[in-house]
Design the sequence.
């Protein structure tokens, strides 16, 4: 049977419970490799382990079960620390193998072949990572620009080959800033093209950040291809109103794509997470967005499908 590979070890998909599929628990954007000084992304910093436990306990107390932690190795991932946080909080954590955006890709990647990079990722997914026996449980491709190319494309192709070898899903960071004119509002279709070239089944692709700037027709087309469409910056209303996100979710369901929707909040700053800094924490979906979905006519069973069943089906492999 396929398993979800958490930092505590493999579990059955139905053991996850209510799951956020795009979060950060520990991250450090000061760890840039290609910009000096670091980009403004350095504000993306969560480094308090004890606070991580307390914030996850709030999520757990409201009915939360699991989080997919999408911090990559070159951005501060530490599976041994995540193991302790998971144990102390009672929340399942799935760690990530792969790459964040261009500024955070180590320069040694330039010299390595795609095959070598893929082999390294396969080890992290099957044997262990960060000196731990526990493995990562998902792959990540992140794009900084409005087109996929250069070292980011190299990394994506390595991720693709690791996915084919293991069955692990690929989750994506897709740019959607107002400065970039991208057909469909994100580079998801570009991911589709390259992954098809590599032979990756499209039901292993999660198109992320689709709720920064959304084109509902493109999102529906991605779902028709078999991709997961992830609304994962919930609570960040400088991109889009959460009411609009709730309406997009309802419309995706109306078009027949209930099984292809995932949710997350992408907390990566203290100002987003910590209440004393104005943050709404990891509890936003459970204490606010679920109610917004219900107000739009999304049923309890549909919410359970999105937040409990879909994550398990996406994450399970092996």
Sequence:
């Amino acid at each position: 049977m396929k398993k979800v590979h958490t930092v505590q070890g493999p579990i059955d998909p139905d053991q996850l419970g209510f799951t956020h599929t795009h979060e950060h628990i520990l991250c450090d954007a000061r760890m840039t490799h290609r910009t000096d000084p670091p980009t403004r992304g350095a504000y993306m910093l969560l480094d308090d382990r004890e606070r991580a436990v307390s914030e996850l306990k709030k999520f757990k107390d409201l009915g939360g079960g699991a989080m997919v932690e999408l911090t990559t190795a070159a951005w501060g991932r530490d599976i041994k620390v995540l193991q302790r946080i998971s144990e102390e909080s009672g929340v399942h954590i799935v760690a990530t193998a792969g790459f964040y955006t261009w500024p955070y890709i180590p320069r040694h990647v330039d010299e390595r072949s795609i095959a070598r990079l893929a082999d390294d990722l396969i080890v992290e997914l099957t044997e262990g990572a960060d000196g731990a026996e526990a493995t990562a449980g998902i792959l990540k491709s992140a794009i900084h620009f409005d087109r996929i190319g250069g070292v980011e494309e190299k990394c994506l192709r390595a991720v693709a080959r690791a996915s084919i070898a293991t069955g692990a899903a690929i989750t994506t960071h897709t740019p959607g800033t107002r400065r970039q004119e991208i057909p469909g509002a994100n580079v998801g279709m570009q991911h589709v093209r390259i992954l098809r070239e590599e032979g990756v089944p499209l039901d292993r692709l999660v198109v992320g950040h689709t709720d920064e700037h959304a084109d509902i027709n493109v999102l529906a087309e991605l779902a028709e291809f078999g991709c997961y469409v992830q609304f994962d910056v919930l609570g960040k209303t400088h991109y889009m109103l959460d009411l609009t996100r709730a309406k997009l979710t309802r419309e995706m369901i109306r078009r027949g794509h209930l099984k292809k929707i995932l949710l997350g909040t992408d907390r990566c700053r203290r100002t987003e997470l910590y209440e004393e800094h104005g943050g709404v924490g990891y509890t936003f979906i459970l204490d606010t967005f679920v109610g917004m979905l219900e107000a739009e006519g999304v049923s309890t069973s549909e919410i359970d499908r999105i937040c409990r069943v879909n994550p398990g089906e996406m994450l399970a492999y092996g």
